[in-house]
Amino acid sequence: MTTTSTDMFAVEQDQRVAVDLPTRFARYAAEHAENTAVCWTGKPWTFRMLATRAERYAALLDERVPTGGWVAICAERSPEVLALVLGAFTSGRAIVPCEPEHPTPRLRRTIADASPSLLVTDHTAARELTIGYQGDKALLDELAADAALYDGADGMAPTLGDIAYVIYTSGSTGEPKGVMVQQAQMAQLAEVVASEEPSVGAGNTVLAVASLAFDMMIIDIFTALANGATVVLPPGGSRQREPSVLLEAIEEHEVDTIYATPSLLQMIALAGLGTDGRRPVRAITGGEAMSHGLAATLVDRCSALYQGYGPTETTVLCSYHPVTDPSYRPLGLPSTGTTYYPVGEYLDVLPLNTVAELAIGGSMVAAGYHGRARLTAERFRPDPYAEEPGARCYLSGDLVRVDNDGGAIFAGRADTQVKIRGFRVELGEVEAAVQRQPGIRQCVAAAEPDSGGNTELVAYVVGDLAGLRNRLATELPASMVPTRFEALETIPLTNNGKPDRTAVADAARAETGSSVPAAEADADSRTELQRRIAQLWSEVLGAAEVELDQGFFDLGGHSLLAMEIVARIRSDFGVDLPVWELFSVPTVRAWAQALDDALHTSDPDDSTVRSAPATFAQAALCIAEQVVAGVTSPGNVVSVDIEGNLDVGELLAALDSVATRHELLRTRFDLRGVDSMQIVDPHVDLDFDESVCGDESVADEVREWAARPFDLSTGPLFRTLLVEHGAVRTLNLCFHDAIADAVSARLVVAGLAATYGTAGAESGTGSDPTLAPDAVLGFGDLARAQRDRGTGTAATELISTWRGRLPKQVDRPATDHSTVTESRLLTAGQHAALRREAERTGLDLAGLVLGRLRSKYRQYARRAAGRRALRRHRHARRSARLHPARSVHRLLGAGRAARRYRLGREARRTRRTARLALTGW
Fold first, then answer.
1. Which residue has the higher pLDDT, 197 or 613?
2. What is the rounded CA–CA span in Å between residue 532 and residue 538?
3. Nearest CA among 238, 247, 246, 178 for reference residue 213
4. For burial by CB atoms within 10 Å, which of 440, 507, 640, 762 has the most?
5. For the whole model, what pTM was predicted?
6. Which residues constitute the domain of residue 78?
7. CATH of the domain at 68
């Protein structure tokens, strides 16, 4: 009698009706509102704050996105993005997460395939990704401001049949394919995570390292939150996966659980995980096979180690195995609601100790592939062993061998899919991308072990290799760009005429000079650090010689090997080099310079006071203030009436949050030198007053309060007054002209509106529409740029020229102060067209409108005499000279300037010209 693995390997499906994930989250948030939900670079978000934002997003999406519509999200992770995702789940809309760091062409193909009803981007992805995009789109900060206007979701919840998310993975045809996962599968996963070991829930703190575009984010962020765990988001961008940053986050936030691929865990282990008194964590790994060496290290350093398994098509993770013996690492028994079958070609269950393909059935099998009916039918089959009618199973393509103890041991793949540093890669997609390049006739891709025992991607190519890697990097994610290229005269073929994948490596070794050559290094001219870095590269990469300017990736390097080098640098020199920053210029020369800088400098204190020159306008105000104290007050005052309940504590927190974001609100001036300097303090003590008075005396109260002089030397240069009169409270904000104009004052109010209610938790672009797209660029940068333009030879010559042309004295002419006002209300369609034009040109709305006015004035006013001044906010134009890719029209600061154009003297003609200028959109 033949013994099969069915009895040992199948688990009875759970017949309980699962609660959808957003409802599970909302229930916990209601009962534990003040528990911490998200920790990140800003202030922590409580469950109340996250749930409130999520409900507002749900209400907004319910109006803006059709039922069943999809929302594509391309943004760095932040609490605001998490709230948006939870809002989409609540409203029954599916998310299509995209990785901002992926090449733009690939992102565009993904979005084109998904056809979302709404595309949401942050400023890092908006510029290139949205050019030419015709569908509905929104910037995250604008969407956040819109969501703040909604009250809540009013009991809204999805159905279990709704699509929850669509994850795009590598496709064998050369194009990525979208895996559609329903609310039902996500609900079952949340139940499993809550009730089965290794359970995650209230009392746990999870370090979330997965990108939004990686399916593991569902388990390390959203099921964790739904079950009451605290989620820690490391800093965004390249630092998100910096091992030293992750170790700091583990210590700072007392992290006890981390989900990560073996590749990332190896990098963290190399950086010192669990050593030197560092906090041990429970590590749950998946996404690729874990080596014996890594397992031995993690068993020794972690409080517990689990090997997880689960394809994207079966909702992330559907089995775990607690690893105590590093030599025995099976996939584990399937979780509740899941069944495993080791099957043959006809879905027949094969005997024990036989290599077979793993079929996965049960309640976590995904809906299928978007727009790929044939592929869905091939991989998602009717489950012949399920009792439930219509049940399906997924053919994973993973080969396993089930041993006598019921453990499934991974034995390879049944197709050409491989795992590179935890990412799923179809070799066919890599080959298709290579063969699209000019000068390439044929390509075979393979996954092979590198010098460190890790898996690397190798391309065997017939054609010209020059510049091939750089071209591929513009089309493919980093995990899909081969780390090594081998040139062949011909690709060996099998008897049936197909590429012989087993023979290409032998053919490459047989052909002399087939590898990409490395030029000889000029050893005599190298510094000692350059020689030592080159030696490290040579040892780790297995390269005989390394040139100073030869690329790390050109020599077969990747992130794991880089971490090994960084670990050895730490051991030899006692300094930590940020590996992801080193990737920006990956040469021996650049790494040696970075090491030299690290050896001779210390990290700056983030709490230090910073300075920048004052702008010319600010300097003029400082001079006037020194001549007559108080002459520059009261500045700009903005007042907002508030009806209903107001939490003063929340208001103060929102004010503090906005001040933290905007350096101008923390700025004072050093008036002691010849040139005034802006001094930016790390923190500011709020000048906040409350008053109660009658309606008839409100104006006098505010006027007297605003007239108090500011002290430019000590700051703060803005103050707030909350006046209660009758049933209404009026919030008044007063800003010195040196830090904010009227436009900036309105931006602060918008920021307060977006931040109030979340206790000012964010310090990123999340919910504050006033924050500049790139926090590195501040008003001080604009001031420096203005000063730079006002100095030097060219500026001196220009000043001399005008001094020669202009008279020393001039009689002041009589001035006609009569004005003409023309207003026009744009329709919704005209306003939408105007916004599209602004996005296309990269201008802010004010700049675009004034540009059109100027054009029409020129067209209709001709050479008419007279001058009138148009005022505009000039941030966008200034920033374009600094960084063309950054628009900072939302940056706070005194950025007005007068632009004068010739108009007709006759009011009638001027009105006609203005009317014509305001039409046509």
1. 197
2. 10
3. 178
4. 762
5. 0.57
6. 46-158
7. 3.40.50.980
